[in-house]
Every structure is written in structure tokens, then in C-alpha cells.
Amino acid sequence: MTKLREVRRVRTSRQQPVSAPRAGTPRHATAKPPEDSLSEQVYQSLKRDIVTGIHPPGEALSEKDLARRYNSSRTPVREAAVRLQQDNLLRVVPNRGYFVTKISVQDLTQLYEYRTAVECACAELAAAKGMNPELMESLERLAQTEYKIDDRKSYIHFITADTAFHIGIAQLARNQLLLRAVETVRCQMERIMYAAIDIGYYGELPVREHCEILDAINNRDPQRARQLMYGHIFGSRDKVLRIAGGAPGQF
Questions:
Q1: Residue 186 has what pLDDT?
Q2: How far apart are CA 189 and CA 111, in angstroms?
Q3: Chain centroid to CA 169
Q4: CA nearest neighbour of 218 among 148, 152, 132
Q5: Contact status, residue 163 vs residue 48, Cβ threshold 8 Å
Q6: What's the pLDDT tens digit per position in 26-44?
Q7: Could you tell me where in the chain the CATH 1.10.10.10 domains are found?
Q8: Average pLDDT value over all residues in the chain
Q9: Superfamily in which the 105-242 domain is placed by CATH
Q10: CA-CA distance, 188 to 97, in Å (whole number)?
Q11: To the nearest 5 percent, what fractions of the chain are helix, strand and coil?
Q12: Concatenated DSSP letters for 85-127?
């Protein structure tokens, strides 16, 4: 009987081979997320904290503190910092650390000039290339988004909707380069809008302007769509520049 049991054990072990663990990996080790995944997580989290003002303009940040804050090692933090410098949200100074960028009046002027060139082209192309009914329906809902004065939560909801609206116009243009440009510039616009909350300025509701832009696109009128987007952006620019002149250092 004992020999019979031994034979059965041998047969069973041959029928059910055990996969060998990867070299250098303990059999019972918990899988860790890959470094590139951690880098992306740190990048997105730190980016959001800069945009929303948790890390204010000019703040000095260290790799060690950021690694602790975002539950990471230093390498993903370093990789995220390089990307954020390319986004103009962070300045990397060798042997000193990282510094959250400030937005000067000159930066604001250039930002709005860039927005005009890119987003006016998007509106014009969106009107020329034809409709995407499902996306247009979504944009019409976004265009109606309002907020309540002194209600931070409602204004944050408006910021999200405003970004989605402008990115949606770029999607209608069906040009990936323009879309990428609008997505990038919205980081800086959101920084400005969040900073405006802290100084008690909520701006004016752009519902009418947004709806007029959509009407021009819907009516396949490229020149009017471009003109309306130009007026919308430059109207916003004048208000922001007045705030920046009266409250330096806020951005």
C-alpha cells in the first residue's frame, strides 16, 4: 500500500507540472506596479495639484517630499518632473529641486495669442468639416453649464465643463495636432481659473458665447465660427489681464 501511494504521488506530480517563477523573483512576492505606471500616476497627481493650486506658484518642491506625498520612489518623481517642465508647470533646477512656475503678464499675453491661433482654427475647421451629432449634443449640454457665485464646488464643476467644451470643439476639427495643442493649453487656463476663485473673481458666464459658436458650427459657417471664437477668447483675455495687473503674483 505504501509503495502504491508513492507511485500515485509521482504520477500526479508528472501530470501537474508547476510553472517556474521568473528568475530573481521570490515565489510568493507581491507584484509591484511597473515604474512607468508609477511615473504616470505621479505625473497626473502632481499635475492636478499644481493646476488646482495645492502647490501654489513659486513653491519649492523636493524629490524626497514628493516621493513621500505620492507614495513613490524618486525615479518616477524625476520622470514626472521632466514632463511637467515640458508642460510649463514646473521648473527643474539641478542640485536645488523643483519650482512651480509662475504665470507673468507676458506669459498671459502669449497664452491668449496662442489660444487664438489654435482655437479659432479649430472652430473654423469644425464648421467646414461637418457634423458629429453625438458630440454636438454633448457640447450643447456643456455650453449651458452655469455656476453659483461664492460656491466653489459649482465653479469647479464649471471649470471641468468649460475645458470639455473647448476640447470638444477641437475634436470636431478632426485634427490631432490641434487637439493636442488645445489639451495642453487648457492646463494653464485651469490654473488661472482656479487662482481666480481664491481672489473672489468668478468671471462672467459664457453661455451665450458658447451657444453662438455652436450655432455657427451647426450652420456650417466657418468664418463666423472663427470670428465668434476670437471674440470669446479675447474678451476673456482682457478680463484676466485686468486681474493680473491688479493682483500681481496670483498666477
A1: 94
A2: 9
A3: 16
A4: 132
A5: no
A6: 333 434 455 568 999 999 9
A7: 34-102
A8: 85
A9: GntR ligand-binding domain-like (1.20.120.530)
A10: 22
A11: 65, 5, 30
A12: HHTTSEEEETTTEEEEPP--HHHHHHHHHHHHHHHHHHHHHHH
